[in-house]
Amino acid sequence: MKRKRGIQTSMCRLNTDPSGKEVDQPRDVLSSPRYMLGRGVKRKLSDCEMVGGAGPGAELPYPQQRQLVLDLCLDKLQRCRARVEPSLHRSVLLANTLRQIQEEMRREGGTPPSGPTPSPAHTATPLHTPDLPPIPKDYSLSPRELGIAGDCSAGEPLACPGCEGQSVVSSSSEEGCTEDLTVGARSADSLFGSFEITNSTSYLTDLAFDDIFEDIDTSMYDSSDFSALALSPARSSGAPSGVEDSLKPFPSCTTASALQLCLTDLNDLDHIMEILVGS
Amino acid sequence: MIPGRGGDPDDTRWCFAQVKGVVEVNVTEADIISTVEFNSTGELLATGDKGGRVVVFQREQESKNQPHRRGEYNVYSTFQSHEPEFDYLKSLEIEEKINKIRWLPQHNAAYFLLSTNDKTVKLWKISERDRRPEGYNLKDEEGRIRDPATITTLRVPVLRPMDLMVEATARRIFSNAHTYHINSISVNSDYETFMSTDDLRINLWNLEITNKSFNIVDIKPANMEELTEVITAAEFHPNQCNTFVYSSSKGSIRLCDMRAAALCDNHSKFFEEPEDPSNRSFFSEIISSISDVKFSHSGRYLMTRDYLTVKVWDLNMESKPLETYQVHDYLRSKLCSLYENDCIFDKFECVWNGSDSVIMTGSYNNFFRMFDRNTKRDVTLEASRENSKPRAILKPRKVCVGGKRRKDEISVDSLDFSKKILHTAWHPSENIIAVAATNNLYIFQDKVN
Question: Which UniProt keywords apply (chain B) (predicted)?
Fold first, then answer.
């Protein structure tokens, strides 16, 4: 997923210093990126240290601190899904932190919503500036938005205002905070949904047979329903989706439509549906 | 820190006894110790590692010739407990890492332990064989079948001594009951049942029955996207077989009574400390997540470990802990860095000593901390090869927070965060501790005069 240029994950690396201030350390598994940890030597003061208040007057202003944490949160959620062993515990903590920050941002206001349809403020400034990009007030990690998967499998018509709004995404500056938040929101859902360790037999017995075919029901060929369905990469009914589907980072929303966005994550069944319904 | 011997801090004298494991520049990940546990008598010490192996050490009999040397722990049995598995549907590997080992009380000559990875719990029997039968009629000494036509007489096989062989066999495999990662197992005081805990559910098993388990706690919401809290640890009460506790990622502990209902979703007691608003930060929730919960041996108290503190709770007081000990409060200002490098998610364990007067937990830089609940003194010690001369007394370490650093102190910025002590164990009755430092196991004893 594209991210704004802001925080580099290597910023706070405690073990390497390209400027050569540090003594050479033996490279071993513990100083690999997996650990990225201090090796007991001095290192440069990083932005993270500033947030921690390491030096008086070196502290970042609160909004920037918050932005830093937010970016780290999203980055970790992204990486969390790519790990071999996704940890539900860690993902829940990250999602809660993310939610907390977003609510705080929302409470503080920001630009008013651009209109009745809740769409990200694309008229906003280029999102790679270090300033806090405006967050649409109506954006939220509400269960509604996250609940795409859950509702879809039940076969009810689903109004997904957030999704619809964001689905009409222009190809211009999509990167950045709001985009990340969007992705983060959806990823949280597919994140939690993909945690189950199942073996074949229990998996199949859990699956209600009808659920698989519910999607093919013609009563669901409603555009709003479909876009919602299409947006869910891993539904809770357990439609088989390989790890590639659920763990692949969302492609950047530079593409024109939600269908494009989600096609890469659709499993075969959704693909068929999409063909049947048409773009 | 000798229980019962308070007063002078010079009384604190822990000595190096043994270290197990190799010194490597590149640590083999499979060798990283992931759990340590003494059995109920302290005769055996088990470790599990990331490679799915269990190594059991046995304490040798104390020798009258060398009274100053308490029994050493030597390798008794090594076996591969879990193998990596692959979930084909999810394309996910199931790690073979041993998350927990719990010993069963001993009934006969054999030893039994439960070991678990993310998905499967196994009951292992470790038994000795020092005799073998000889003189079969139908087989010869090499085991080849004899031609019955050549047998003219019958004899009774006799048992003859042989070299001691310790074998481990898997007696029960408790599988397919957990959708999420198992983080705890706990043997009930009835010695008939045990529970296994994953992120969202707790299951009760009978040790004899592997094809059935009872779900006693289920916190999975109907919509997974509403999930905000997971179970992080659980343990049975040491004496009351109907009581258990489980801790959560939000820093709360619930005590449940299995007599009240079949499904213990409603707790009997709820322990949670109100948040201190002055300490609030982005990371408040993450650092409040409880990584370990342990009943005291007496069953009167509960100990919990979160990222920065250890707390002792009185079971009769739910509103706040009885005692709070700061493990490494100097990290509070570094939380953002620790969040960035993922250290903030490290799960430290905590242990009681035999008399419940001292508690111990690990930290970074291979430091571990002990808190004496009576004298309120604490000490920081280090598990390192440099301090590994036999019976060398461990010198207390100190972390310097700011300002001038004294000679022997270490500054916060010089701490090695890759050297973390997550797993420790305390002998049930003596002052012997086992400390796991990455791939090495250190055994320390208090100084015997």
Answer: Repeat, WD repeat
What domains appear along chain B, each with residue ranges and CATH number?
14-446 (2.130.10.10)
Provide CB contacts within 8 A for A165, sequence distance 6+: A117, A118, A119, A120
- Beta-carbon contacts of residue A115 (< 8 Å; ≥ 6 apart): none
Interface check A13 vs B, CB under 8 A: yes
Q: Is B145 helix (H, G, I), strand (E, B) or coil?
A: strand
Question: Alpha carbon of B386 to those of A185, A206, B19, B392: distances in Å?
Answer: 49, 55, 12, 10
Task: Evaluate the CA torsion angle B207, B209, B214, B217 in order and state its sign.
Answer: positive
CA angle, residues B196, B200, B201, in degrees to nearest 5: 40
Neighbours of B357 (CB within 10 A): 18
CB-CB: which of B178, B334, B417 is closest to A52? B334
Kindly determine whether residue B227 and residue A192, on different chains, have CB atoms separated by under 8 Å. yes
- Rounded CA-CA distance B69/B445 in Å is 10
Q: What is the pLDDT of residues A217-259, one digit of tens each?
A: 565 555 444 444 444 443 434 344 443 444 343 443 333 444 4
The rounded distance, in Å, linking the Cα atoms of B337 and A14 is: 9
Residue B49 CA to residue B96 CA, distance in Å, equals: 9
| pLDDT-derived band at B263, boundaries 50, 70, 90 | confident
> Tokens 């000798």 identify what position?
B2
Q: Which two tokens stand for residue A219?
A: 């009563």
Q: What is the ipTM for the molecules in this complex?
A: 0.89
